[in-house]
Design goal:
TIM Barrel, 448 residues, alpha/beta, binds 5-hydroxymethyl-3,4-dihydroxypiperidine, 13 strands
């Protein structure tokens, strides 16, 4: 019996990102990225690794696509390394880099797997960083040119496009906390970076509309966090509203409403300075409506007022909870709460869950099999919450598990394991975990 059944055209998929998976860091003219520079800097990566080789997907992509077919994936979300296409970020196209993505898309289509392309998943060309990176407004124009090149090259075969992945992480982990590339600790810079990223998104969407006459669709993938006050006190309620503004509304409001949330704008101005927003920027937001929202869901925040926090709040670790290998609380019900809220606050957008998954210290059996029962439970509970939201009318169109195979988890190197497949770090041999076979059955029966 299928207890939870999904629509027949539901896109069951898996997601990856170029720097985390591809390797081949200097092959075929690929230019240096900020993550190459950062990961080669001592003290940045937990296990002192880089993704120079990663999973060697660049060379093994055909086998990887064949593997995807084994479990029946209907869609595959991957990102393009900007510096493969434009080694310096702008200027002359590197045809060999572009050819790789053409071949990947063709291989997917040949197997009946729908490609969903992310244009930016954190690997900025280092040459652009040398000119100020996302702190420089001009990077948004370079991004729109790069995006237009991809729309031109792949637009006839790619129907689903995502401009940016998790701009909050790019801005704040990379420029305020310094734990991601390019490694700055400058909060006002991070706020300006967030604005330039949103500008880049808007400009790319506008170019897409101008160029794409077919049935292509474009959106953005945001890491969104449902907020729960730590106590019913007015102070914690207010703190949780601020965290919501910082993490969620600062990105959602420009994309859907064409403006920034007043409370957060005021707070940035009071505590730091007014972000560098120019008069016509908001108009660009209004002229760039998306076709869908990508939701990356991993956690909720339990929020308390705190004078230590940069913006007057802190996220607390919930007591008596279960946590993943990342130290993130497992909280499936947050997904349906979040989805319903997005639906009601932002006029019923179409939604793809563009990332959700769990890092686990996998149970590696003697015969090399990984029996990751906790991943099966995690996915089942989260699918159920998505299903529940859909029952109440939220337009969820697909679900992409993070991630296809164990890969480079940014500053954690190879120490965290999110994959549906394990990868032997010596031979790079891939092997499905038990959860992948469970997922295959979910896809085949469209439910569980
Ligand atoms: O690995 C990352 C991914 O690149 C972006 N979203 C969260 C994942 C897990 O941390």
């Amino acid at each position: 019996m299928i207890a939870k059944s999904f629509p027949s055209d539901f896109l069951w998929g898996a997601a990856t990102a170029s720097y985390q998976l591809e390797g081949a860091a200097t092959l075929d003219g690929r230019g240096e990225t900020i993550w190459d520079r950062f990961s080669h800097t001592p003290g940045t990566i937990r296990d002192r690794n880089t993704a120079d080789v990663a999973c060697d997907h660049y060379r093994r992509f055909a086998d990887d696509v064949a593997m995807m077919k084994e479990i029946g994936l209907r869609a595959y979300r991957f990102s393009i390394a900007w510096s493969r296409v434009f080694p310096e970020g702008t200027g002359k196209v590197n045809a060999r880099g572009l050819d790789f993505y053409k071949a990947l898309v063709d291989a997917l289509l040949q197997k009946g797997i729908i490609p969903m392309v992310t244009l930016y998943h954190w690997d900025l060309p280092q040459s652009l960083q040398d000119r100020g990176g996302w702190g420089n407004r001009q990077t948004a124009d370079h991004f729109a040119d790069y995006a237009a090149t991809l729309f031109g090259a792949l637009g006839d075969r790619v129907s689903h496009w995502i401009t940016l992945n998790e701009p909050w992480c790019v801005a704040f982990l990379g420029h305020a906390d310094g734990i991601h590339a390019p490694g700055y600790r400058d909060f006002p810079l991070a706020v300006n970076v967030s604005h330039h990223l949103l500008l880049a998104h808007a400009k790319a969407v506008i170019r897409f509309r101008e160029m794409n006459k077919g049935n292509g669709r474009i959106g953005i993938a945001l890491n969104l966090v449902p907020m729960y006050p730590n106590s019913p006190s007015a102070e914690d309620e207010r703190a949780s509203r601020i965290d919501d503004g910082f993490m969620n509304r600062w990105f959602l409001d420009p994309v859907f409403e064409g403006r920034y949330p007043d409370d957060i704008l005021r707070l940035y101005q009071e505590r730091y300075h007014r972000p560098e927003i120019e008069p016509h920027d908001l108009e660009l937001f209004s002229r760039s409506p998306v076709d869908f929202l990508g939701v990356n869901y991993y956690m909720r925040h339990l929020v308390a007022k705190s004078d230590q926090g940069r913006l007057g709040f802190e996220a607390r670790k919930p007591p008596n909870a279960t946590f993943t290998e990342m130290g993130w609380e497992i909280f499936p019900e947050g997904l349906s709460v979040l989805l319903r809220r997005l639906d009601s606050d932002y006029r019923h957008p179409e939604i793809f869950i563009t990332e959700n998954g769990i890092a686990l210290e996998d149970d590696l059996r003697k015969d090399g099999r990984v029996q990751d029962d906790a991943r099966v439970s995690y996915l089942r509970d989260h699918f159920a919450e998505a299903h529940r939201a859909m029952q109440s009318g939220v337009k969820v169109r697909g679900y992409f598990i993070w991630t296809l195979m164990d890969c480079f988890e940014w500053h954690d190197g190879f120490t965290k394991h999110f994959g549906l497949a394990s990868v032997d770090r010596g031979s790079l041999e891939r092997r499905w975990k038990a959860s992948a076979y469970w997922y295959r059955d979910v896809i085949a029966s469209n439910g569980f």
